[in-house]
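Holo model, FE2/S2 (inorganic) cluster. Inputs:
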Amino acid sequence: MSGTALHDTAEAYEPVFRGEMLERLQEILPRYPTKQAAMLPALWLVQEARGWISDRDMAEVAEVLGVTPAHVRGVVTFYTMYHQHPVGKNFVQVCTTSPCHLCGSADVVKALLEHTGAKELGATSPDGRWTVIEVECLGACGFATPVLVNDDFIESVTPERVPELVRKYKS
Ligand code: FES
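Output:
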């Protein structure tokens, strides 16, 4: 039997919430009126541990919080900041809503796809370092084009600034 097959079996699933992660969840839960209300931070913990949130992880969160897996899925699919598949080490979100579009955000996206090697929106570069997506208004319409690289918010990105930005996060 191959290693891949082993990882695919339900028996191979290793829960996120054990050890330190379980302790962190237990610290978070009392801050909320119900367990269900702690879903967003619980999902952040999963994403921190795994890098993304699989169906099996959603089932674990549902079990821990006492809700249905469909409920958890509804939350995960609603928010673009939760990843439903593996993404690059640097997750790049570019605003392409109308005001930023008018200021040239499409060219910023094009430059990012080219310089990161990701090539297509939502795809991950061959070196596993980059995933670029488009998002709706990031709340910085006066500073087009705003870009989020992981948790870093970068304003006024132009196609000319993209090579420097990619270099900065490459190391
Ligand atoms: S439209 Fe791009 S930040 Fe608001």
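Confidence is low (pLDDT under 50) at residues 1-8. The chain has eight helices and four strands.
Archived with the compound record.
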